[in-house]
Amino acid sequence: MADKATIVVFSGEMDKVLAAFVIANGAAAAGMEVTMFYTFWGLNVIKKDKGPIKGAKNWMQSMMGMMNRGGISRLPLSKFNMGGMGKSMLKTIMKKEHVQSLQEMMAMAKDQDIKFWACKMSMDVMGVSPEDLIPEVEKIVGVAAYVAEAKDSKLNLFI
Amino acid sequence: MNFDVELDTLGLQCPVPIVKTNKKMKELQVGQILKIISDDLGIKEDMPAWCKTTGNDFLGCEEIDGKYICFVRKTVA
User: Fold this and answer.
1) What predicted TM-score, i.e. pTM, was given to this entire model?
2) Architecture per CATH, A4-158
């Protein structure tokens, strides 16, 4: 059986998520069976990027959903975002240096059969329903499913 | 060095050359040699490391005019 790798994607920032995707793709290329477990702000990576969330159950969740719009193309930088200016500069530099975009990294991850799992508890907290997530998400799980994967993993990261 | 299949990864950044190498190796028979061309300095350390994790034979990387030519023999089916 192949070695496993598990990555918890807690952050919803472009630079951190980029690091997660590089490691995930590298591990998959080394023959490892990779699972990315998206939780809390990380849910923004796997949210559809149009419209407000449909799962909001009260005004607080609606407001949170409005301020915390998801979609992989919307993720800000963790530093020097400067209202998106910093991010757009970084994207230009990345292109110049031939670094793949986040979207390309995600497509590569799916091409390499990397599994995307979403955390049910944070979905409930943020009012995110299954229909708010992109179809690439395979399962909606709890902590036990993550622990079962992590227990068998040789590589386990929290990003 | 003799080789069976060639893979051009010029202009591609980490992790793409390794991902493409892994894909290409699946098309090879055990015993065949893959030649990888890259202009990413990182490949010098990454290719032997990838071989170590996957169990394939790293035959070496040579630098010619800013390009790195690496050879890998497939030993794992």
Assistant:
1) 0.91
2) 3-Layer(aba) Sandwich (3.40)
Active site annotation includes B14: yes
The enclosing domain of B46 has a CATH number of 3.30.110.40
Answer yes or no: is the ipTM higher than 0.95: no
Taking contacts as CB-CB distances below 8 angstroms, the residues of chain B near A2 are none
Residue A45 vs residues A10, A14, A130: alpha-carbon distances, Å: 10, 9, 14
Count how many domains chain B has.
1
Q: Report chain A residues whose CB lies below 8 A from the CB of B56.
A: none
Is B38 in contact with B9 (CB distance < 8 Å)?
yes
**Taking the CA of residue A79 as centre, how many other CA atoms within 13 Å lie in the half-sphere pointing to its CB?**
2
**B54 at interface of A, judged by CB pairs closer than 8 A:** yes
Q: Indicate yes or no: CB of B19 within 8 angstroms of CB of A98.
A: no
